[in-house]
TrEMBL record:
Record keyword Transport present: no
Superkingdom of this protein's organism: Bacteria
Gene3D superfamilies assigned to the protein according to its UniProt record, in alphabetical order: 6.20.440.10, Aspartate Aminotransferase, domain 1, Type I PLP-dependent aspartate aminotransferase-like (Major domain)
Protein's organism: Xanthobacter oligotrophicus
Gene name, Swiss-Prot/TrEMBL: gcvPB
Protein name: glycine dehydrogenase (aminomethyl-transferring)
Transmembrane residue ranges: none
One GO MF term: glycine dehydrogenase (decarboxylating) activity
Role summary: The glycine cleavage system catalyzes the degradation of glycine. The P protein binds the alpha-amino group of glycine through its pyridoxal phosphate cofactor; CO(2) is released and the remaining methylamine moiety is then transferred to the lipoamide cofactor of the H protein.
Glycine dehydrogenase C-terminal domain location: 379-475
Length: 523
């Protein structure tokens, strides 16, 4: 069993006393090996008789040696996965301050709705006439998204924010191509504060990325955008509110400049949760924007899925929406999947198999309906209030750049306050783990040094915010008082100690290698 990194001694100030246990467990903090280490090839949780003609059918392809897969009996399998799950930190364990990620509570009502058999048990290949309710739900969700943004069309199928970016940028590319400018416009402007997915998306579909510097107040200067615009520019990708947690106050002037230059304005809507019910995106001059249902609309973040990143499009881009399109006909709602149908001649084709993440659509609409217009507006107001409260309560100890402007959904700190302590942003993040919190986003956005980006969301109570603030204040005071030990060895109390993150990223060990059999002592 691999116990590397466990059990090193904590500093005296927070001494972890007591002997090493025989099992590696620390009371309810249970150690768990890899399934390969604890499983035994001779054990299986199921016992299915091999069908008689099976071997004959495989002929020479039949396996001659055992597969060597680890076997566990049912209780062992159950315990293995439950123990692993307890090493996870999730939004149901505590405040999850990861900035830019909007880790908000996933209401159980949404889960209940998504589990209704009429939604959970349908199949995308069922005839449309048998899933009218599901189509109705997709139409209702679309209607809400269009109402909230003021935009013209929506594509529900993208499976994540980044996938939505791809969809929106492909629509922009198709629109330029339809104007005969596809080759001429090969540059996309991306501010340096952008999330990494923005330049990645632009590059993925063949655009050259031109960076726009941030001005000293953390926002984008329309003059810098104008200077970078030209007949070769296809689009600007701007996140608003941006990744410094600031509303781009010159967004309208920026959009006008972009349009005057014949380019389109892509708005990264990952932070829509800060302005939901307050700002109609269409009024800002946006041509395309993705909306992360797993952020603003409280659906769960999965490890890379199942997410949903619908894209809303302006009048100009609506004809370039991907299929399928949900169309109201005399016979009711129909998913139009074939190109060549009215309005779909210039469509991109499909962004994904089938019709999108139905389970996420149900959850997002449940959140919208249970909040109502006033509730959604209050959710964004509360998210902004929470972020400003955190910033105000920490600013005397931790340096907060751009604090002359109100924060939107997240509070940004840099590492100036750590000067002279011998500690870094990473040390603070690791010490926060010992306090029972997932660390905030660190070293992003890149426009400030040693960034610590905290997004509390509206779903935290004041008591929960106060405890988090108190923990961070305690850490800040300890750092300033020179208690380096508390930080440099952290985390002391996590299932694993501090890892070499560079090595883990550069040379990950992704394959378990069976240890050589131990030589028989008698030989
Ligand atoms: C500003 C911003 N843009 C885009 C994305 C990408 O969204 P997703 O993770 O859903 O692909 C994120 C995700 O954190 C983000 O914060």
């Amino acid at each position: 069993m691999n116990r590397e990194g466990r059990g090193a001694t904590a500093p005296h100030s927070i001494a972890l006393t007591g002997p090493q246990t025989f099992t590696g467990n620390r009371a309810l903090d249970l150690e768990e090996g890899l399934i390969f280490e604890i499983g035994r090839t001779e054990v299986t949780g199921v016992d299915i008789p091999e069908p008689a003609p099976f071997r004959d059918r495989l002929g020479t392809q039949a396996r001659t040696a055992p597969l060597d897969l680890p076997g566990l009996c049912e209780p062992e399998a159950m315990r293995h996965y439950v123990r692993l799950s307890r090493m996870n930190y999730g939004i149901d364990s505590g405040l999850f301050p990861l900035g830019s990620c909007t880790m908000k509570h996933n209401p159980r009502l949404n889960e209940k709705m998504a589990r209704l058999p009429g939604f959970a048990d349908i199949h995308p290949l069922q005839p449309q006439s048998t899933v009218k309710g599901a189509l109705g739900l997709m139409a209702e969700l679309s209607r809400y998204l269009l109402e909230l943004t003021g935009m013209q069309a929506v594509a529900l199928t993208p499976k994540a924010g980044a996938h939505g970016e791809l969809c929106g940028m492909m629509a922009i590319k198709a629109a330029h191509a339809a104007r005969g400018e596809g080759d001429a416009r090969h540059v996309v402007l991306v501010p340096e504060s952008a999330h990494g997915t923005n330049p990645a998306t632009a590059a993925l579909i063949g655009y050259q990325v031109r960076s726009i510097p941030a001005r000293p107040d953390g926002t984008v200067d329309p003059e810098a955008v104008k200077a970078a615009l030209g007949p070769e520019v296809a689009a600007l990708m701007l996140t608003n509110p941006n990744t410094c947690g600031l509303f781009e106050r010159d967004v309208v002037a920026i959009a006008e400049a972009v349009h005057e230059a014949g380019a389109y304005f892509y708005s990264d809507g990952a932070n829509f949760n800060a302005i939901l019910g307050k700002v109609r995106i269409a009024d800002l001059g946006v041509d395309a924007m993705h909306i992360n249902l797993h952020k603003t609309f409280s659906t769960p973040h999965g490890g890379g899925g199942p997410g949903a990143g619908p894209v809303v499009l302006s009048d100009a881009l609506a004809p370039f929406a991907p299929v399928p399109a949900l169309v109201a006909t005399a016979e009711g709602l129909v998913l139009v999947e074939d190109e060549g149908v009215d309005g779909a001649e210039q469509a991109l084709g499909r962004m994904s198999a089938f019709h999108g993440q139905m389970g996420m659509f149900v959850r997002a609409l449940a959140w919208m309906l249970s909040h109502g217009a006033d509730g959604m507006r209050q959710a964004s107001e509360d998210a902004v209030l929470s972020a400003n409260y955190i910033r105000a309560c920490l600013m005397d100890l931790m340096s907060a750049p751009f604090a002359e402007r109100p924060a939107m959904h997240e509070a940004l700190f840099d590492d100036t306050w750590l000067a002279g302590t011998g500690l870094t942003t990473l040390d603070v993040a690791k010490a926060l783990i010992d306090e029972g919190y997932h660390p905030m986003t660190v070293y992003f956005p890149l426009v400030v040094h040693g960034a610590m980006l905290i997004e509390p969301t509206e779903s935290e109570s004041k008591a929960s915010l106060d405890l988090f603030i108190a923990a961070l204040r305690d850490l800040a005071l300890a750092a300033k008082a020179g208690d380096k030990e508390r930080f440099l060895g952290a985390p002391y109390y996590a299932p694993r100690r501090r890892l070499d993150e560079t090595r883990a990223a550069r040379s990950p060990v992704l394959r378990w290698v069976k240890p050589a059999p131990v030589a028989d002592a008698a030989e």
